[in-house]
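testing teh design pipeline on a random one, pls ignore if ur not involved
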């Protein structure tokens, strides 16, 4: 009889139920409304937290990773999540935004992939701190882009010399390198993180946090690949969005630096549209509103 891979969502919910974390298990319900009204006894008031994280675990996640996610989810205080949902559902704009921000922080806490990233990229003896780290970083910023585009972007990191670019295609194949650091490759040969949701953002955050001495190099690299003739120009808006998310939790993020570059040195219609959309998001984000308004004043 052919073995059937366990459903990742059900694996996570079963473990939470076994640990007595029934509230957290309810957050993962795929059809909260139907599940909540099943049976003779119906809830007089629906639980608004039911299913709020139903997309946290995708069905392509491995059972082991599903258990790891469930373990971190177990540490989230139900009262904290309930307050975030209550704020999110408030018509008041400030309360609504605070609720959305808190739910985002909860998701980030659960999907940090800290252990995987530390073992893969910072563990002793792995030898992956160089090329493999940059390959993962390129795929994280360019998620959804063709693999060949991610490889080309990675070769742009650091000094622009032919030998450095050639090393990415020596030894293990670039696609094998990407798979080894957690990047999925779709049938259309594009970079994906469906099996490890949240890994791309976590990789960007960990890279910025752990390699503080390379922040200038990272900023220069992002500036270079998003230039009018850069290999990742078509992904400028996504890169900007990832940097905005980074700015919420990390210091010295290059978000506003890149916005200023796009607005002043490459002021074509596409860049101006992207900058306008990103600065608007920043002004509506509690942690970035002051800096965003300062940036607007500087431009004025």
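output:
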């Amino acid at each position: 009889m052919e073995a059937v891979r366990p459903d990742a969502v059900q694996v996570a919910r079963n473990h939470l139920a076994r640990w007595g974390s029934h509230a957290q298990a309810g957050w993962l319900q795929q059809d909260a409304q139907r599940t909540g009204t099943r049976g003779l006894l119906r809830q007089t008031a629906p639980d608004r937290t039911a299913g709020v994280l139903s997309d946290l675990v995708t069905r392509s996640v491995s059972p082991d990773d599903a258990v790891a996610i469930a373990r971190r989810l177990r540490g989230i205080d139900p009262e904290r999540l309930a307050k975030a949902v209550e704020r999110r559902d408030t018509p008041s704009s400030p309360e609504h935004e605070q609720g959305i921000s808190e739910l985002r922080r909860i998701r980030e806490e659960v999907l940090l992939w800290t252990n995987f990233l530390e073992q893969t990229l910072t563990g002793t003896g792995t030898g992956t701190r160089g090329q493999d780290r940059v390959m993962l970083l390129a795929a994280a910023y360019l998620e959804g882009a063709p693999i060949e585009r991610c490889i080309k972007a990675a070769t742009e990191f650091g000094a622009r010399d032919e030998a450095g670019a050639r090393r990415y295609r020596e030894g293990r194949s670039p696609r094998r390198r990407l798979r080894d650091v957690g990047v999925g490759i779709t049938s259309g040969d594009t970079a994906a993180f469906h099996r490890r949701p949240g890994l791309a953002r976590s990789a960007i955050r960990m890279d910025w946090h752990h390699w503080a001495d390379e922040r200038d190099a990272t900023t220069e690299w992002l500036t270079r690949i998003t230039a009018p003739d850069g290999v990742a120009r078509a992904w400028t808006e996504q890169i900007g969005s990832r940097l905005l998310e980074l700015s919420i939790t990390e210091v010295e993020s290059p978000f506003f630096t890149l916005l200023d570059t796009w607005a002043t040195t490459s002021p074509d219609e596409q860049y101006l549209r992207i900058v306008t959309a990103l600065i608007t998001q920043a002004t509506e984000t509690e942690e970035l509103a002051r800096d965003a308004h300062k940036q607007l004043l500087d431009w004025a």
